[in-house]
Amino acid sequence: MTVKRVFLTSLMFYLGIWLFGLSGFSEDRIEELEGKGLHIRTNPAGAKVFIDGIERGNSPLILENIEQGIYNIRLEKEGYKARRFRARVHDGSRLFISIEMEEAQGKVLLSVKPAAGSPPKDKLAWNPVVIADGKQVFDSAVTLQTGFRTFRASSFGWEDASETVFIAEDSIQSLNLELKPAQFRLSSGRLRRNRFNPDNAGALGIAEINFEVSAPGTGSMSVFDSTGEMILSRNLPVFQTWSQHTSWNGRKADGTRAPDGAYQVKISAQSIPWDDTLPREQSISLEVAVDSSVNIYPLSIAGGIPGLIFAPVPGILPPGAFQIEAAFIAGALPVRRSTDGGTGIETFRQFPFAVGFRFSVTEQVEISAEADIGAFLDRDSVWGLSGSAKWLILNPQKTGFTGLAAGMYGAWSNGETASPFLPGNSTGLFLPLSFRLSPAFFLLLSPVFFLDLCNTEDIFLNARLAAGIHFYRSFITGGLSVSLEHRLTGAGEFSPVLHAGAELKYFPPPSNLVFTLTGGVLLEDKILGGFGGLGLGLIF
Q: What's the rounded Cα separation, in Å, for the pair 372 and 352?
């Protein structure tokens, strides 16, 4: 063993003796590093550092100009035990000390019980929950960090009781919380949406009502039209907790749809007395509007153009609503690729993944965008971006029959087509038109004109005619769509491109999740391909 190694071993041994306050903590660390001075770090940080009785700052603390010698060090932090030790600092090296601070704790013996004169537990349920310093506790003996701590006990049907106590280090004290029966109160009535369209799918086609009660009771919900006539009334479940929820689907008592207009939703409630007193009655009223122009239902965001996968739709989301969608598909897909002689078509096994969103800027303008990744098994992957802006000209919900919009889009990819729904590099215009065939079905006709920019040597003007049947009913939307593409300008042979697809979107209440099942075929340059996939999204 060399002299240098003996010296370092001895040095570390003596440092371990001098730092006598550290032996009980496995996370404490002592190192002598290159440099000079003293470096003190604590977990958590922010401990006050006293050296020979003088406060020198808060941890982490670096003192580079401290002279060599032995120092008495004390660390203090509120809620933690003070640490004291001695350390020797050598000239020509930096002493690094890492300290794990230990919480200073005290114990509270907790008792929660009904106040004198309270009803027996078979008359008023007794299920107290105790929150101590923001966390629920389950034992009668509670150990907490020192300092001021607040205890709050609550039980449905009882008034909350709370008290703040100071917990000293290593102390044991008793705390008694008494709860009194609560007076029945009905409060905090609110609507999740105060304007809704009953024809929308799932939870988007209902008005959700939330309110609070303080004690057990019964209630009812009644709906009145603008003339004051009651069109619906139903009883609510017995109140067994504070937060209550109900909803109105925009239908009358006979099941028919309520016409557009303003309505009053009234919640009437009364207490269930535990003694011989009369029930206490309270009510709240909320205003809600039925509006068929609030058109919210999920669409595919294929290629950044919302609609069916191959046919845009004219309808847009109302301001404040938005949709996010992610889709994964697989198949053998014809892919356009640039060659020296122009643009060719080849079939590749592809696994495209797309993430898109749509939202409305105003009641007439909707913005959409999508990012695509085309993962291939037998060649390098590509990725692309696409987006569109759509202006609503005729709202199909207001006209009752016809919908019309105009929009423009752009798409770009770093290689060949990243999405099977649009060319890799293109920009164009689309004019979606819809005709209402029934309350649930729409016929779509959507001409699209775009410049194909895949081949930089020649820019082609293409036309695409898309058509489809779109339906939405209760918790399901979807449809069938087909598009036929033809080249209008440019040299070279070009065979018509035919795309067809089907999709089904399931929107289970009361969540805002949208599940998608889709599939289709693509025919390009007499090469046939197919795909199928799944999607998951959110709509609000």
A: 7
